[in-house]
Each structure stands twice: as C-alpha cells, then as structure tokens.
Design brief:
Length: about 300
C-alpha cells in the first residue's frame, strides 16, 4: 500500500449508503479535504456539520457537474442505480468528462463482476463501456468490480426462514458475495492510496450457492430451510405478478441467470490487499445480523 495521497478527495452519490460510508471512512483515515456530492444536499446536513464540503451534483447536468468537481484531485465515481440499459453509461460519460475538465488526477469507479459481452446482466454493457471510457480519458484509475452484496440477504432471508423454503433461479451457481461495508472499505482505501491504473475484483472470502445459504439459515434459525430451484422465467413472472415493472423484473432476474451461468463465481483477496483486513463471510455477516432475520414467528 502506498502512502496517503493528497486531496481533495471527492465522493459522488454521497447520500447513498455506500457513498456516505466511504466519506466516513475517509474521515476516520485522516484523508482530507473531503468533498461529498449528491443530488439531495439536504440529506447530508450531518456531514456538512462535520466540516465536509457538500456540493450539489447531478450526472444529467454536465455543466453543473463540472462545477461540482472543480478542485478535486481524487474522485470516486459510484455507479448510478439506473436499471435501464444505456442510462448509466450516459451519466458516467458526463462524470468522466467533468473529471477531465476539472483536472482530476485519479478516478476510482465501482463496476460489476465480469461485465463482458457474454454477461446476461441487463446493464453490464454500461459498466463495460464505462471502463472503456476511463481508459480513453487518460486519467489513472482504479476499477472496483464489486460482486453481489451480502446485505441483500437481509431482505430475502426472513421470508425464507418463515416459509422454510428459499426460492432462486441460480441453479447450482455460486457467487463471491461481499458486504457493503467491505466494498466501502475497499473504495476508501483505493481513493486514499492507489496510484496506478488497476482493476480489482472486490469479493467476499468464499463462493456461496443458494443451497449453502439455505444451510446457513437453517443453522441460524434452528429450522430446516430448503433451497427450491426455479427457472429464470418463473422468477421474472413472479416479480411482475407482485407488481414489479417488467424492466426491473428483467434486471433483477438477470442476476440470478448470471450466477447460474458462473459469471459471479469470483473470489479474490482484493479487499485484504487494499485494506489490510479480510472481508466478512456470508455466515459471519448473517450471524451478526441474526436478530433482524429471526422475525417474530420465524423461529
């Protein structure tokens, strides 16, 4: 790990969970000055009270974005959350152009595991093309290809524990699930220390299947949780039947398809290499959050 680089350090999407945590970690690490940008400045009053410069930034407003990035030397571009293919790329292109105009010296970008042309994930192309734009920019950069968030299990696991069944269209596929906290630690470390152009696969320590997850939930709950494989078509149809817009259902179902086809089966030492501390396993993370999983009547 290189020495702390000079700021200012700028974090986009700082009102989101990942961005806010990165800002906190930068402060804890002694980095400064730190600039936090967001479309919702009113959500960052607490950070502003801590002396963080908060700026309004909208990726759809190129002129305003250039003003928001002014003076920044180290920039973290957190991928936008648009699910429709193409929308992220337009936003990211504007951010990279603004970074070039601002004279940014290093960019850190949160990408996706295996965003190649064979990825079934609907917006993988946006990540792939954003990575290409970073190369074209000529700015040294760190690409963090984050695997799937372990945190998402906090939403699906309680229902599985209650029903005794875990439904997924992942087949026997596995993924290198990583916590949001570990992604934030990796991003903060890269922003503070990385100097060369490099790509990291940010993952948890193990490859985990849905059958593995069912076994973990069984241990935590004291109940038998059975993994029930379903098809991607059935998953998509079920989400639409429950009121999810078709485009969102397609995007979410594409992640299960990607896991089933092996695209997310990546596990590396990147988190430890970047931060000096190993990432949390799925079992450890869920164990620490067991109280929120075991809803009344689930045990």
């Amino acid at each position: 790990m290189t020495a702390m680089q000079n700021g200012p350090f700028l974090v986009t999407g700082a009102s989101g969970q990942l961005g806010r945590r990165v800002v906190e970690l930068l402060l804890e690490g002694g980095a400064g000055p730190v600039i936090a940008t967001t479309r919702s400045v009113d959500k960052l009053t607490r950070l502003a009270a801590q002396g963080i410069e908060v700026r309004s930034a909208d990726f759809s407003n190129p002129v305003g974005l250039k003003n928001a990035f002014a003076g920044a030397k180290r920039l973290l571009i957190i991928s936008t959350d648009a699910l429709e293919p193409g929308k992220r790329l337009v936003a990211h292109n504007g951010a990279i152009e603004a970074a070039v105009a601002a004279g940014v010296e290093h960019i850190v970008y949160t990408s996706l595991t295996n965003p190649g042309p064979d990825s079934p994930i609907t917006f993988a192309v946006d990540h792939r093309e954003t990575e290409a734009l970073l190369v074209e920019s000529g700015i040294p950069h760190t690409i963090l290809r984050n695997n799937l968030y372990t945190d998402l299990f906090l939403m699906s696991a309680p229902q599985a524990i209650t029903s005794g069944q875990l439904f997924a269209a992942t087949g026997q596929g596995r993924a290198g699930y990583v916590t949001r906290e570990d992604c934030a630690r990796a991003a903060a470390a890269a922003l503070m220390h990385e100097t060369e152009t490099k790509t990291y696969d940010v993952t948890g320590p193990d490859l985990v299947s849905q059958a593995d997850l069912a076994a973990i939930l069984s241990d935590l709950s004291g109940k038998t949780i059975t993994y029930v494989p379903i098809t991607v078509d059935d998953l998509r149809a079920g989400m639409i039947a429950n009121g999810l817009p078709p485009s969102m259902a397609e995007a979410f179902a594409s992640f299960d398809e990607a896991i089933a086809k092996g695209h997310m089966a990546v596990s590396t030492n990147a988190v430890k290499d970047l931060t000096g501390k190993a990432p949390a396993s799925v079992r450890d993370f869920l164990g620490k959050n067991a109280a929120s999983l075991l809803e009344p009547g689930a045990a």
